[in-house]
Amino acid sequence: MSQPREDDLVRAVRENQWNQLILERAPQLGIDDWWLTAGCIAQSVWNLAAKRAIHLGIRDYDLFYYDPDTSWEAEDAIIASAARLFADLPVEVQIRNQARVPIWYREKFGIPFGDVTRAADGIDRFPCATVAIGVRVRDGGCEIHAPFGLGDLFDGRLKPNRALPIAHVYAEKTARWQLEWPHLSCEPW
């Protein structure tokens, strides 16, 4: 990844005030392994590219974390803490323990998710490689996790990630995104 692209990503993410506030507050949850990820990251970049208001089209703000305790009670406690922490924000912050994804994924999609040992494992398996990006605060700066790089994001190219065979999810998401951001091109599954 080139430094200018990383700098552009951080600038776009921080320009969205809700991303900025979530990034600032997330460490207060007491979770070491977490990422702000998915649509709120990519769509902030696309909104800037399209010269639109930074928040347009962003449905929610995903905060992935990893806790080896896969009990519902442990995740519910973090969700409740996050609800209090972000209660004043006019956006939906969805927080999910990635260690729990294999528990429900097979039932929802009919295929296994595979083992999870860190929050970034969830990002690495997004159906669209272009939005497989996470940002978190570390040592006063932003750390970026982008297993497929940032080029396609900034070039407006949607590309599949075939790590899991969920072509229908990719098709649904990319169709919605292209309606919202017509400048995006889409590679078929």
The main sheet comes to:
5 strands, mixed
Domain count: the total is 1
Reading the helices and strands in chain order gives HHEHEHEHHEEHEHE
Number of helices: 8
* Terminal CA distance: 24 Å
Approximately what portion of the residues adopt beta-strand conformation? 5-15%
Class by alpha and beta content: alpha/beta
Low-confidence stretches: none
**Strand order of the main beta sheet, please?**
3-2-1-4-5
- What is the molecular shape? globular
Per DSSP E runs of 2 or more residues, the count of β-strands stands at: 7
Residues in helix, %: 40-55%
Radius of gyration: 16 Å
Give the mean pLDDT: 96
Keywords:
single chain, 189 residues, alpha/beta, two-stranded parallel ribbon, 8 helices, 42% helix, 15% strand, NTP_transf_6, Nucleotidyltransferase family protein
